[in-house]
Amino acid sequence: MTEMRQHIFWMTVVLLGMAFFNSSCRRLSFIDDADAQLKFSADTVKFDTVFTTVGSATRSFKIYNTYNQQLRISEISLAGGEGSIFRMNVDGFPGDVFSDIEIPANDSIYIFVEVTVDPDGEPLPFIVEDSIRFVTNNNEQFVQLVAWGQNAHFFDGAILCDEVWENDLPYVIYNSLLVDTLCSLTIREGCRIYMHGGSSFFVLGTLFIEGESDSLVRFEGDRLEGFFDDIPGQWEGISLLRGSSGHQIRYAEIKNANYGILAGLQSTNPDPGSYLGDATAPDLVI
């Protein structure tokens, strides 16, 4: 009787092992058809204008396995390799090249992409391109990457005195800017000033804005994606501090700020009581 029980026990172990093995084989069954195609949520990933040396917002797209079996992507890589100005993250992992990425049946994964554009000295926006290469069962597919780069003048917590800004490149302000006491800043017509999140434009001296009706001086946030066009509160505003005087502001467009222009403040901690909100100022003398 004991021998019979042992025999039954070992037969059960063998049968369970075979069932587990067969189940594992089924789970690890991958499509090997050379015609198998990945499906993408986008065939091109586009970035709005990106200031040189400044990282972009993150874009994403999905890769779909539309088959009833698992799919193995033998390679996902940036065509530009390590030298690419684009960066990717595959399902939570950053890198330039990925191997043997598996997607379960009727499932999908995310790819995230960013870009940092190198400066080239050109005043006009310029296009930069790359692509992501996918190899599945020796079948190649590509998703294109396209961005517009824009060179700019950058100021980070700057204190200015007796400067003139010409309309050659955009001006990008980080961590606020101060025109010092007994100093002036002249901004020529057509200049574009982009303020980073939370930054202020403080004036202790004198501010001259020389816009024209057909060539405004524009102040706005530095998020250039279309989604941010009309969102307020992206930066603080222009603060004409107490003791400053002689300001002349002609045809200035101020947008995306918490306030437009505040005058007569005691310090660099504005409390917007009396102010000019987001608006186009055709002619102000303060």
Structure notes:
The protein is 9% helix and 49% strand. With 286 residues, the protein is mainly β. It has 2 domains: 39-150, Immunoglobulin-like, CATH 2.60.40.10; 153-285, no CATH class. The protein starts with a helix and ends with a strand.
Fraction of residues in helices? under 10%
Radius of gyration: 29 Å
Give the DSSP E fraction (strand runs of 2 or more residues): over 45%
What is the tally of beta strands?
Answer: 23
Key words describing this protein structure:
five-stranded antiparallel sheet, elongated, 286 residues, mainly beta, Immunoglobulin-like
Structure summarized in a few sentences:
The chain has one helix and 23 strands. By secondary structure, the chain is mainly β.
Q: How are the SSEs ordered, and which strands pair?
A:
Elements: H1 2-27, E1 39-40, E2 44-51, E3 59-65, E4 71-78, E5 86-90, E6 93-95, E7 97-103, E8 107-115, E9 126-136, E10 139-150, E11 153-160, E12 163-165, E13 171-179, E14 184-188, E15 192-195, E16 200-203, E17 206-210, E18 217-221, E19 237-241, E20 248-254, E21 261-265, E22 275-276, E23 279-285
Parallel strand pairs: 2-10, 11-13, 12-14, 13-15, 13-16, 14-17, 15-18, 16-19, 17-20, 18-20, 19-21
Antiparallel strand pairs: 1-3, 3-8, 4-7, 4-9, 5-6, 5-8, 9-10, 20-23, 21-22
